[in-house]
Structure formats: C-alpha cells, structure tokens
Known about the structure:
Elements: E1 9-12, H1 17-26, E2 33-35, H2 55-70, E3 74-83, E4 89-91, H3 104-116, E5 124-136, E6 143-156, E7 172-174, H4 186-192, H5 194-209
Parallel strand pairs: 1-2, 1-3
Antiparallel strand pairs: 3-4, 3-5, 5-6, 6-7
Amino acid sequence: xxxxxxxxxxxxxxxxxxxxxxxxxxxxxxxxxxxxxxxxxxxxxxxxxxxxxxxxxxxxxxxxxxxxxxxxxxxxxxxxxxxxxxxxxxxxxxxxxxxxxxxxxxxxxxxxxxxxxxxxxxxxxxxxxxxxxxxxxxxxxxxxxxxxxxxxxxxxxxxxxxxxxxxxxxxxxxxxxxxxxxxxxxxxxxxxxxxxxxxxxxxxxxxxxxxxxxx
Length: 215
C-alpha cells in the first residue's frame, strides 16, 4: 500500500477533539490531509459499536466503519491506560469504564482516586496507542488495513498537574521524567507520548514501503 494509493485526504475516525488536534499535529509529515469525521461525506451519520477485545480490534472497527461509510481512507486510534497494580485496568475500557456519559474530568478524577489508594511504589502504568489505517481497495470492494503501535511506560500521580494535553495526561509521568504529559511543552510530549510513537511508526512504515527512507 504505497503512499499514492491512499489519496489526498484521510478521514479521522474519532469525534474526540483533543485526539483529533493531537493527531493532526503528529501527522503533519503525512502526504495527505487529515479530515475531521463530521466534515467528510456522510461522516455525520457514521457510527460504530466499539466491542473489540483488544486495541487492534477496536481501532479496526472504527477505521472500517468510517472508510465504508464515507468511501474514503480512514485513520482510527484506540488508546488506553494500563495500571499494573490494577491488573491492566482500565485498558481498552479507558474511555468508557465509568459509562458512556462520563466526562473527561470524571474519568480523570476516578483514576486519580484509585491511584491515591495505591502505595507510591505500585503506581506504574503504561499508555498504549494503536493506529489503524483502512484504505478502500478499489471498485471490487474491501479494505486494506495497516496498524502502528506506540507504548510508553511511566508512573501515575494521585493529583493532576498541568494544563496541557487531555485525558489522563495530567497524572501520567513518563519513566525518567519529572513532568506530567500535561506539563510538558507540546514538542516534548509528542516525543514521549504513545500516540506520537505510533504516528512516527505509521509514517515510517508508509515511507519505507513507498521506497523512501523511514523517519
């Protein structure tokens, strides 16, 4: 799947504004423009049932639904926070463990409260991001899928710090760092983050397949 086969525009399979803004910046080196879902043809009517049992399955569900619903290539992200002392919780349910109606602030406060109950030495966590790129396979129908994954290890804080980022960034400190992801300048966060690593892997693999040096 060379770069020229993807087309000039790719639809983002997400309505999460923070995620959309971050991915748009991370993928500025891509040979296509990232289009918000609701700005794509028929994008406002596209829905999906995120019922996979892994990040890869959930990312694929979203990418397929948007690619088939809009007729355009689609990029989906499925991300999660895994707390080792909580046996990987919330994992693939990171955005929904308090129910679909829970706000971002409520989710953050809920995890922070659980972290506060853990000993300081048991607050290790992993941020995971899987990207799925679905590309319509021509008039015969079907899709081709490509995945990229990024992970970052770190520790959690019981109290949020910082005003940047989104989601659980205010309580996550990457290993070897002192600032939370919400305290880091954007370029530093992009370097360390799970989503930044997944985006770089995706771009590198596409460039390598197209005969260009990977980044």
